[in-house]
Amino acid sequence: MRPLADRSTERDLDCVGMDARIDSLLPLWQATAAPLPENAAIHGEHRALFDASPIDTIVIGAGVTGLSTALHLAEHGAQVIVLEKDQPGAGTSGRPNGQVIAGLHESPEALLAAYGADRGERMIQFSGKAPDLLFDLIARHGIACDAERAGWIQATRSRRQMKALAKLTRSWADRGAPVRLLDRDEVTRLLGTQAYAGGWLDQRNGTIQPLAYVRGLAAAATRAGAKIHCGIEVERLERAGQNWRIETTQGNLHASTVVLATNVFTSELHGVARRLLGRSYLAGSSVQVATAPLNDEQRAQFRKRYLQERRRLEEQIVHDEQEKRPRPVKRRATSCGAGSRSTGTASCVPRR
């Protein structure tokens, strides 16, 4: 297949030339992802957009959720337009660490207890098959995103925690998942460190270059017939008869269905009724650092510095915890006079 950078026939993706708008806090993905497809009609597409009659579906947000929605709808013949105020992957979808992991944060048993047998099991099956969907999309659409499906290990330093990991492993294995428990020797062999007491291996999982994946989804969606317009911000969303009226910075649109695929940025949709947004999202931050491959000497230096910093932080934590504890009041000896009989008070002076 040709790399995305060489494709100049994708004319429905109106986002070229906006790479600089991704902030510089995540340079690795931006530096290594193939650019968006070329588009020879960047300016003219917006004018044609607002001349269109009511559209089947408008998707707001060109991240993984929005682009996957657009792709699947377009593959089924729907007329789909994606509106993005920046460019595909400029938000959360283009910034994560690229791990593809099956399941949810809670264990299958916890989901069954919280949601019941029917809904809980459907959630388990849905989340457990998520990596299959992602890697199938990559294969079907030839998305160049450094995809690897070599599995994922959750390791633990605690021998007591191994019981919980064994239970989790059995739970997924009973549902046919390719998982297995790892003892200390095997996890040491696989990870190259003796720091862990064991762990479990889930072979459904893998890694991708997330920004390249998002851009590949964008290219696939346009090939399927969806249109993506960048630099358009939604200002208001309201009902207009049987359709939705979408007011944007570039003009107004009408659609039968609107999909809000803005994730954590949903709260930034000004003019959109709160009742349409559902529950609020909380923003979270994480820090990632990437380096060139380290040689043996550099790894030794890094490990030494790491251990020093870890020891310093542990000592700081202990110190801070001690500072938080209430201190006993130190009583000082005093020399007191007889005081006043009428008030019952005494005149006291600290003894020097």
In short:
The chain is α/β, with parallel strands linked by helices. It has helices at 27-32, 44-50, 64-75, 108-115, 117-128, 130-141, 161-173, 184-191, 210-223, 274-277, 296-324, and strands at 13-14, 55-60, 80-84, 99-100, 152-156, 179-182, 198-202, 206-207, 227-230, 234-240, 243-248, 252-260, 334-336, 348-350. It is globular, with a radius of gyration of 29 Å.
Please give a structural write-up.
With 352 residues, the protein is of the alpha/beta class. It folds into 3 domains: 1-94 and 210-290, 3-Layer(bba) Sandwich (FAD/NAD(P)-binding domain), CATH 3.50.50; 99-208, no CATH class; 297-321. It has helices at 27-32, 44-50, 64-75, 108-115, 117-128, 130-141, 161-173, 184-191, 210-223, 274-277, 296-324, and strands spanning 13-14, 55-60, 80-84, 99-100, 152-156, 179-182, 198-202, 206-207, 227-230, 234-240, 243-248, 252-260, 334-336, 348-350. The strands form 4 sheets. It has a 7-stranded mixed β-sheet, with helices on both faces. The chain has a 3-stranded antiparallel β-sheet with strand order 5-7-6, sandwiched between helices. It is globular, with a radius of gyration of 29 Å.
